[in-house]
């Protein structure tokens, strides 16, 4: 007999579902909880976030001021805790509303097709041709409406991408036999949408939510950084970045802390969302 | 051993091939100790149902195993051991000496490349520099070899060609470098029966003209028998029987081979009941101790469950993996006495009550000059208690017609009366729709998308039950599952936990929830393995007897039509070309298209020969 042969396929693919929650996801989830706790219990934070003590300006981190103070002598750590609310609530609202509206539009366009699809899809195409952040900068700048106007504008201009992704999924599913069987049995359209299509595209809805949330964090803090978000004087991570960057050499942490917090929150949201999507999606695979 | 399969003449010799993969974190065997031999110029078939390991076996030969799957054993190609070759040398061998054709003619070719380029890409300029012009001439010549005489095809994109044409182009690319062995994995499964016949004769001709050896992987015994010299039957990762085609077909010695032959609906006679092979192919990791077929085997004894039997010679070149092969030899006679049902025993239809009454129905898609006619003009009737076949190839309009009958699409013109309601007439009232839906329900082809994967079986059935009219019997999910022969506990299951056959049963149960009088079955068994197909066909016969159902059976498989219908319509290009009682149409077809369809069924080739040639018999 000849020598034996071993042929090996590449061992690249991870097993589909791993039992339990991976450590990385766990860490990300805990990191996401931190700003939530800060929002729910602002009193947990040390001291006053807005008290100006001119003599304490630009201190480096110490036992009294964990992250030092800014150029006006405000405690950076206290400002971080208070800033969590706008950093978290803005993106949360933005992602929720965007995903809710785009799911409804996608279901109508992808399931009913016809003129409704035409109207929605062309509307989406028009919106798609405009860069959201630039429009937000112009509108908020001109109208001077502040943070919530920024959230509203970004919500509208974040729709196109979501609608397109979800519409494609709805359209694909709507042609499958199980939907045809439901129609043949006489199921009402609204029930087909709610009972059949929404659960099937739910992994995508979850994924879209976390994606929008991540983009929301970055876009909204960019607006604040440009001075167009929250009103002057309020505590916000994006605004802290802008205000403290000129004194970065005196107190490095006054700039680094909000920047790092934004990055950590965005990355954590991404990791958790990705994990949820994979887990959820694997549960509904065909074979 | 006969001279047929001594090692000297073997161009491909596989011994002790084992394949292992991972499932749920544990290593499991997928293929176990398989030996195959292919002589120069010989055609062999590897036959088995899904899960038998046949595809992975040949993928191992080609170095095309999926990630995470490993193979060990000895593979010799032309006296050279593949184990001694480098990966690069094996790569070269694969393109030039060992060629591969896959099942799906729709995904096998690159959609963005013209057909000619794909053939030219297969021509490797190894020791000769080919000019572009010469290359193109070669591509056209290769196309001619596979029966495409129009050189313009070289400039077309795959999506411009039919499935059969694409399969030809793929074969042309595969044989471009004059390989010695061509491996074809289910090359005709996705094709219509007439196209299937053309591709099979093409493979047969190429083998003759070029001295090509052919390894054909298929689930269809008739396809294997019609083109191959020898057949290997695989079950649960092992070869259970191998031998010359005539011996295996006429005198199968393994109960599994016998069951496969018996479960296949015959084309020429109607049998009372197809062989019911209980259970399913055990998945890797769940192989039973002893003979792997024993749990499903009628002849199994204690002896069978103790140890895994060896592959023993029962006749020259005929090997069987069964300890009782000698004892049960005389019981394994295929279709010994077919219980033919005379026309008098066919169910009588009540011709006074037409459930479906279609006249001059026409359906076009699109408008103006680009309008595409799906159904030109169809007249069909289905009476209460009757089972009617609707036969045609893809593109004949049979599915569109079926969708019109259940109201999924409305006719452009003509009359489509279902339960007395004309679906061709404008807007229907709620009561009209309810009538249509209580009359006709549909079961679909693809078992993998017929159920919503997010709903449990119980939820799926409840969704259907709540739509049943208030004044009729309301069944509960347990009762529906019982009707289709599934345990009540299946209510909690998700579709992903069910096999293809079980999913089809649930789909039938769902259709029954509204107590319809007619079920439109659109190719419901064509995606199923032979033994599962027999289960479903038997189930349909039972349901008909118990519930007095009618069927409109849409299929391309004439043998299925023979088994389950009394009347048949033959559809071609949106027109009914022939109709009549099933035995009359199948035994004495009048229309040339019907004749061609019947001639193309592989079961016919074996008897008459695909092409004229002498066959070796043991």
Automatic annotation (TrEMBL), chain A:
Transmembrane parts of this sequence: 20-41, 88-112, 132-157, 197-218, 252-277
Membrane topology category: Multi-pass membrane protein
Keywords: Cell membrane, Membrane, Transmembrane, Transmembrane helix, Transport
Biological processes annotated in GO: transmembrane transport
Main location: membrane
GO cellular component term of the entry, any: plasma membrane
Gene3D superfamilies: MetI-like (1.10.3720.10)
Protein name listed in UniProt: Uncharacterized protein
Organism: Prauserella muralis
UniProtKB/TrEMBL annotation, chain B:
Domain of life: Bacteria
Keywords attached to this entry: ATP-binding, Cell membrane, Membrane, Nucleotide-binding, Transport
Localization: Cell membrane
Gene3D superfamilies: P-loop containing nucleotide triphosphate hydrolases
GO cellular component labels: plasma membrane
Chief localization: membrane
Keyword Transmembrane: no
CDD domains per the UniProt record, alphabetical: ABC_NikE_OppD_transporters
Tagged with keyword Transport: yes
Gene Ontology molecular-function annotations: ATP binding; ATP hydrolysis activity
Membrane topology: Peripheral membrane protein
Gene Ontology BP, a term: peptide transport
Family: Belongs to the ABC transporter superfamily.
PANTHER family recorded: DIPEPTIDE TRANSPORT ATP-BINDING PROTEIN DPPD, OLIGOPEPTIDE TRANSPORT ATP-BINDING PROTEIN APPD
Name recorded for this polypeptide: Uncharacterized protein
Species this protein is from: Prauserella muralis
């Amino acid at each position: 007999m000849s020598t034996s042969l071993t042929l090996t396929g590449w061992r690249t693919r991870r097993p589909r579902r791993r039992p339990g929650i991976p450590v990385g996801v766990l860490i990300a989830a805990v990191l996401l909880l931190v700003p939530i706790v800060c929002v729910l219990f602002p009193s947990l934070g040390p001291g006053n976030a807005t008290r100006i003590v001119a003599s304490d300006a630009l201190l480096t981190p110490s036992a009294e001021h964990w992250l030092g103070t800014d150029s006006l002598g405000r405690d950076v750590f206290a400002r971080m805790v208070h800033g969590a609310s706008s950093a978290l609530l803005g993106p949360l609202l933005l992602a929720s509303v965007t995903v809710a509206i785009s799911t409804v539009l996608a279901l109508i366009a992808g399931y009913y097709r016809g003129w409704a699809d035409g109207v929605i899809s062309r509307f989406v195409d028009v919106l798609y041709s405009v860069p959201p952040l630039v429009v937000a900068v112009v509108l908020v700048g001109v109208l001077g409406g502040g943070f919530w106007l920024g959230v509203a504008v970004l919500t509208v201009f974040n729709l196109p991408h979501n609608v397109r992704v979800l519409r494609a999924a709805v359209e694909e599913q709507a042609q499958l036999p199980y939907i045809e069987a439901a129609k043949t049995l006489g199921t009402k359209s609204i029930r087909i949408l709610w009972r059949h299509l929404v659960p099937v595209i739910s992994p995508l809805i979850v994924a879209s939510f976390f994606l929008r949330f991540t983009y929301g964090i970055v876009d909204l803090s960019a607006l604040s950084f440009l001075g167009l978000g929250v009103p002057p004087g309020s505590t916000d991570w994006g605004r802290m970045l802008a205000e403290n960057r000129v004194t970065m050499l005196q107190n490095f942490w006054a700039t680094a802390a909000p920047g790092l917090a934004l990055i950590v929150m965005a990355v954590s949201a991404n990791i958790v969302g990705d994990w949820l999507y994979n887990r959820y999606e694997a549960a509904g695979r065909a074979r | 051993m006969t001279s047929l399969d001594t090692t000297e003449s073997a161009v491909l010799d596989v011994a002790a091939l084992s394949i292992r993969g991972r499932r749920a974190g544990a290593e499991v065997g997928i293929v176990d100790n398989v030996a195959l031999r292919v002589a120069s110029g010989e055609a062999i078939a590897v036959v088995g149902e899904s899960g038998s390991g046949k595809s992975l076996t040949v993928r191992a030969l080609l170095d095309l195993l999926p990630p995470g799957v490993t193979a060990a054993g000895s593979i010799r190609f032309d006296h050279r051991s593949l184990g001694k070759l480098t990966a690069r040398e094996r790569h070269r061998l694969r393109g030039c000496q060992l060629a591969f054709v896959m099942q799906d003619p729709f995904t096998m070719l690159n959609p963005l490349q013209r057909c000619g380029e794909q053939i030219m890409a297969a021509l490797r300029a190894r020791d000769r520099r080919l000019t572009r012009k010469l290359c193109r001439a070669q591509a056209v010549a290769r196309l001619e070899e596979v029966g495409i005489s129009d050189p313009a095809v070289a400039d077309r994109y795959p999506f411009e060609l039919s499935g059969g044409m694409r399969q030809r182009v793929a074969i042309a690319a595969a044989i471009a470098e004059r390989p010695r062995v061509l491996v074809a994995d289910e090359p005709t499964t996705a094709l219509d029966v007439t196209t299937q016949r053309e591709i099979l004769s093409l493979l047969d001709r190429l083998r003759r003209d070029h001295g090509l050896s052919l390894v054909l992987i298929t689930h269809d015994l008739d396809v294997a028998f019609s083109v191959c010299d020898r057949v290997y039957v695989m079950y649960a990762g092992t070869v259970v029987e191998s031998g010359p085609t005539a011996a295996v077909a006429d005198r199968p010695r393994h109960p599994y081979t016998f069951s496969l032959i018996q479960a296949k609906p015959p084309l020429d006679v109607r049998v009372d009941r197809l062989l019911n092979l209980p259970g399913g192919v055990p998945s890797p990791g769940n192989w039973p101790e002893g003979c792997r077929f024993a749990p499903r085997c009628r002849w199994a004894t204690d002896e069978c469950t103790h140890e895994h039997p060896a592959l023993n010679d029962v006749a020259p070149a005929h090997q069987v993996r069964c300890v009782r092969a000698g004892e049960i030899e005389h019981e394994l006679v295929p279709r010994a006495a077919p219980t033919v049902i005379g026309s008098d025993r066919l169910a009588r239809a009540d011709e006074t009550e037409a459930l479906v009454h279609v006249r001059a129905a026409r359906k076009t898609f699109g408008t103006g000059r680009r309008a595409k006619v799906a159904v030109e003009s169809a007249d069909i009737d289905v009476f209460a208690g009757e089972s009617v076949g609707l036969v045609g190839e893809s593109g004949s309009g049979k599915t569109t017609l079926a969708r019109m009958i259940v109201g999924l699409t409305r006719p452009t013109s003509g009359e489509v009366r279902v339960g007395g309601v004309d679906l061709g007439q404008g807007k229907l009232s709620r009561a009209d729709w309810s009538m249509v839906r209580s009359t006709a329900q549909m079961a679909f082809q693809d078992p993998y998308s017929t159920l919503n994967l997010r709903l449990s079986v119980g939820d799926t059935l409840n969704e259907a039950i709540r739509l049943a009219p208030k004044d009729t019997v309301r069944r509960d999910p347990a009762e529906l599952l019982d009707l289709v022969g599934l345990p009540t506990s299946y209510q909690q299951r998700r579709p992903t936990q069910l096999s293809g056959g079980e999913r089809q049963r649930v789909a039938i149960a769902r259709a029954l929830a509204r107590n319809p009088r007619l079920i439109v079955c659109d190719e419901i068994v064509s995606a199923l393995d032979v033994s599962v197909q027999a289960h479903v066909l038997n189930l349909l016969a039972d349901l008909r007897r118990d519930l007095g159902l009618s069927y409109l059976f849409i299929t391309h498989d004439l043998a299925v039509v023979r088994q389950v219908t009394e009347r048949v319509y033959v559809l071609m290009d949106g027109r009914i070309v022939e109709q009549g009682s099933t035995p009359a149409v199948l035994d004495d077809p009048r229309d040339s298209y019907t004749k061609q369809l019947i001639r193309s069924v592989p079961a016919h080739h074996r008897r008459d020969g695909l092409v004229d040639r002498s066959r070796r018999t043991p």
